[in-house]
Specification:
Alpha-Beta Plaits, two-stranded antiparallel ribbon, 2 helices, single chain, 65 residues, binds iron/sulfur cluster
Length: 65
């Protein structure tokens, strides 16, 4: 499973970081989320899906391999 982040859409709310702290951090430079490394490790996939569903800008996309 992969997660793609569209940084052109991200607004830096940080909901992803709060929901999936193992996958997401916000950049110190621009305040936007940082693309997590793919593929997503099995133990983090559930929180990745939750963060994707929780993103208020729909900046995240789950791609099931
Ligand atoms: S929740 Fe969505 S819009 Fe907010 S920082 Fe994360 S990816 Fe960006």
């Amino acid at each position: 499973m992969r997660i793609e982040l569209d940084r052109n859409v991200c607004q830096g709310h940080g909901v992803c970081q709060m929901t999936a702290a193992n996958l997401f951090t916000l950049s110190d430079d621009d305040g936007l989320a940082i693309q997590p490394p793919n593929p997503i490790a099995p133990q983090f996939q559930d929180e990745g899906r939750l963060a994707t569903a929780s993103c208020p800008e729909r900046a995240l996309t789950v791609i099931e391999d």
